[in-house]
Amino acid sequence: MIEVLDPTTEALTQTIEYAPRPSALKGMRVALIQNTKFSSDKLLARIGDILKTEHGVAEWKMYHKHNSSVPAHAEIIDEVKKTADVMVAGIGD
Q1: Reported confidence tier of residue 92, pLDDT bands at 50, 70, 90
Q2: Domain ranges (residues) in the chain
Q3: Can you say whether the dihedral through the CA atoms of 37, 43, 49, 50 is positive or negative?
Q4: Which residues, 6+ apart, have CB-to-CB distance to 28 below 8 Å?
Q5: In the prediction, which pLDDT does 93 show?
Q6: Residue 49 predicted with pLDDT over 90
């Protein structure tokens, strides 16, 4: 007799609550979080410049994750909470 084992489990559902979005970006401080992939810093810097010239953001600052396969580390999250009004995360390849 052969015993068949099923290694799968039921998928857990998780509700995600998104942060409210501002109605305008004028005067906002923007945090840009890049994931260390090739050109992600260039892409986000360009986005930051566009947000400043076309949408009136006050300033933008870029943060660098340790690597692309992990979430932003606690120091970045703590700093962004204190110094930014909105955040953009980006990747590059």
Answers
A1: low
A2: 29-90
A3: negative
A4: 22, 57, 58, 85, 86
A5: 65
A6: yes
Give the pLDDT band of residue 16 (cuts 50, 70, 90).
confident
> Distances in Å between the alpha carbon of 52 and those of 27, 56, 60?
9, 5, 8
CA distance 32 to 47: 9
Q: In a 10 Å sphere around its CB, with 0-12 CB exposed, 13-18 middle and 19+ buried, how is residue 34 labelled?
A: buried
Q: Which residues contact 60 (CB under 8 A, 6 or more apart)?
A: 29, 30, 31, 32, 48, 49, 51, 52
